From TrEMBL:
Identification of the protein by name: Transcriptional regulator, AraC family
SMART domains: HTH_ARAC (SM00342)
Domain (HTH araC/xylS-type): residue spans on this chain: 222-322
Entry-linked Gene3D superfamilies: Homeodomain-like (1.10.10.60)
Domain of life: Bacteria
UniProt-listed PROSITE patterns: HTH_ARAC_FAMILY_2 (PS01124)
Entry GO MF terms: DNA-binding transcription factor activity; sequence-specific DNA binding
Keywords for the protein's UniProt record, in alphabetical order: DNA-binding, Transcription, Transcription regulation
Amino acid sequence: MGNSSEQLQDKVPIARFDLGSLPAEDRYSIWKESISVIFDVEREVETGSAPFAATLTTCHLGSMLLADTASVGQCFQRKSPLIARDGLDHCIIQVYQYGTTRGRWGERHSTVQPGDVFLLDLTQPLDSCASDFRNLTLMLPRDLLAPHLGAPERLHGRSLPRDSARGRLLSQHIATLWEVATTLSSDEAQCIARGLVHLIGAYFGAGRVEEDRPETGAVLLETVRRHIGNHLGDPRLTPESLAAYFRVSRSYLYSLFQPLGGITRYIQQQRLRRAFLELTRPASRPRRVSEIAYRVGYRNEAHFSRSFRRAFGMSPSEARFIGLQAVRYTAKGHDQPIDRSYERWVRELNAPDF
């Protein structure tokens, strides 16, 4: 298998990341750096363990990515600092071909077996460990899925069992999509994306009447979320001002944000995540911590620092130091002949206007 990006005429682009041709002692460090676009990973190495090995082949289907990953066992994490730093607002649908993963996904604890269809929200924390595995991973923007599923975060860590009808059907659908993905045109990929998000919404939403909300509610939720993201620096951004702006009752607004821990908590989380992102950006180094706090809506630096430490377990100054370390580590790099296009695709993935 060659290591290159391929795009023939209007065929979907493919990125093949394969560590097999690299020196064994370099593989894990390169993998750890590369996959950090999504996860922090750790590997427990026992005496006599085989050299690290991993391959990841990704098809860019326009509005979503579909990847086939095979690797030796390791632990995957998304904690508050990483969630804040990368700002990914994507969901993942995953099916293991072999191997298992177990851990904590938000408030859920579970073990995922081969054939189970698993949903993850990348804005939510996770801490899991997988055995040697191979899986298919579908990544799609929240804005693409939310209209069909309401608030995806309420299903973070939910799986459709392999012995259920919905689990078998969706698993087979994703496997078949992988089989034909390399032959699809861009137009065909967009058509399939439209159908697949409907299918995911129907299968994961079925039988959950008590948690369903009308489609208009899901659309409003996403609209309010975008509005909050665009106005984090406004200290007048409150549940009362939002209810007035969108002409809804406060109780209805509270009910929309209940799966996210409440609207007040959501606003604070977004402000702190934006601050973390700013503090770790090289371009923001000349700005003082107080200036960054002001830009995200805090008018009291001491209050900001206390809130930041509670959220991330470190001070704003320590977060800035982490950002400098990341720059130095990346700058060292490796001259590896492998295709890392998928990293850029993950960062730039957006929902289309169908």
